Amino acid sequence: MTVLGGEGEIRSLRPVRLGVVGCGGHTYRNVLPPLRQIPEAVIASFCDHNEEKARLYARAAGSDATWHTDLHEMLSSEDLDGVIVVVGFDDESGEPLYPPVVAEILRRGLPVWMEKPPAADTLGVRQMIDAAREGGTFAQVGFKKVFSPAVDRLKQLTALPDFGRITQYTYTYDVDLPAEIGNLRSPSGRRFLDDFVHVASVLDYVVGSASQIQVVRGPSGAGIVVNQHADGTIGTISLSSAASGLSPVERFEVVGEGANAVLENGAYLRYYPPGDRGPYGTSTSYLPPVGVASPPDHGPRIWEPEFSLGNLHGGSHFVQGYYHQMRHFVDSVRSKRPPQRCDLAAALRVMSFLETLAGGFCEWRDIAGQPQVTYQHVVDAPQSFTCSVCGNAMTLKDGWNYVCRTCGLTRSGQQSADAARV
Ligand SMILES: NC(=O)c1ccc[n+]([C@@H]2O[C@H](COP(=O)([O-])OP(=O)(O)OC[C@H]3O[C@@H](n4cnc5c(N)ncnc54)[C@H](O)[C@@H]3O)[C@@H](O)[C@H]2O)c1
User: Fold this and answer.
1) How far is the CA of 23 from the centre of ligand 1 (A)?
2) How far is residue 340's CA from residue 323's CA, in Å, rounded to a whole number?
């Protein structure tokens, strides 16, 4: 088949014929545009209950797409390789429409890419898992942030040997906790479900599943979620929609063992490798001293998008992962292999986390399917330093500095021995 490539060139290739179910605002703004950069992805058919929209979307696709108002009709009459589903919520019940729609397609053996939130609970996800098993196929969920270049790199940074294991994280996000306990279908629950799955999916991908959570909700709706993982990692999620609408929506910081990484606004990534800011009290430069183990370029690393050139990568579909998630789905359909990220198992973990989170406040709750938190609190062993001049035991003189009461040599309890100074 002859199609247009990413630069508008003529290309000959084997297409992946896709159907699109749901011709709404999100499909128009964020699902169809990045598909233009995936030449194999040919939209063969559109389906929406609204006939006029289905017809106009088919006309706007720039292909010979057909249109339908009924999913069964589309599936029976079209020769498709996969289906994209972007249908949203049931107006009355507040239930995401994905489980029944997606299950029907999966049972026919067709792979599905669906928008988030996949369901209002784990039951809905299980319905789709059963259907995928029945149809011998797979589904991918639109947790776009997991595919964004910055989250991808953040995860790679946390895997560096220098980073150590993840010990702690803080995620700040602009959404309030739902007021109605346990009800993610209520209007405020729906708002939370719709947005918070992004946070939950990034945490699931970068850190893994928490085992136990506790939630505190303030009178404004602001919330703090405390997560404990079975391996001892702890994390908080700070939620509030009370910040200025002019500020970025999110900030995510992950701390390792002597290193940390910060992702601001989904795009500005900083990595702080292990290093020393110099001895307390006597350091005269904020730059780390140059030495064998610390060359002049040792220090934080910062990545940010470039917005001047005609590159694709500064566009929101590329910064936020919309393109990359679709590229992954089309590749999965072509190779007939399930996606490596954001499959139904990931959706189940995310919804299991949300289901637990939507309970009452100020109590520890276990997350189903996760191992128990077994670590015990231990009191840190006291530090002890010997004066390198007098050989006497040094005394803690404030919160973190040690002094030799004989000769006055001081050192920080946070630095290595060679950093001790008279
Ligand atoms: N990932 C993101 O960043 C992001 C951003 C915005 C919206 N979304 C998600 O996109 C989805 C859609 O949002 P929207 O604003 O486009 O909603 P919308 O209401 O504008 O569009 C949904 C469309 O689906 C159609 N539809 C529903 N059920 C159908 C069915 N069974 N068969 C055929 N057509 C059907 C409706 O007629 C409607 O035209 C939601 O799940 C939302 O959470 C994701």
Assistant:
1) 7
2) 16
